[in-house]
Amino acid sequence: MTSPAKAIAASVGMTAFVVACLSGMLADNPANVVLRHALASMFVLYVVGAVLGSIGMHVVTRHVEDYKYNNPISNHGHHSSGHAHSRPGHPHAQNPPPPSSKPS
């Protein structure tokens, strides 16, 4: 897991811990119950945050790679004319229209 994903996971986990502690204390629950629920919430939402952070990093990385491919920079510093989604095998590749089947 990369560091941005770890940061998202830690933020989500700690937020869950704080929310569980505050809501447990405001409900006048015993300290052992509050901490048990807070730790369980932190662990579960850390895992959820790690998954979401990893998915987010994958999506951002994919979009950056697609942008770089579709907008190449020539040796002279000018943008060349990249064709959006024209890479073969790309999931969003624009397929040519099917031949028309009009009778002649």
Walk me through this protein's architecture.
The chain is mainly alpha-helical and about 100 residues long. The protein has a domain at about 5-70. Helix content is about 60%, strand content about 0%. It has two helices and no strands. The longest helix is centred in the middle third of the chain and has 40 residues, at about 30-70. The relative contact order is 0.12.
Number of strands: 0
Low-confidence stretches: none
Q: Beta-strand level of the residues, as a percent range? A: under 5%
Query: Total number of helical segments?
Result: 2
Helix content: 55-70%
How far the N terminus sits from the C terminus, by CA atoms, comes to 60 Å
Assign an overall shape.
elongated
Order of helices and strands: HH
Give the averaged pLDDT, no decimals: 83
Largest sheet: none
* Structural classification: mainly alpha
How much is the radius of gyration in Å?
25 Å
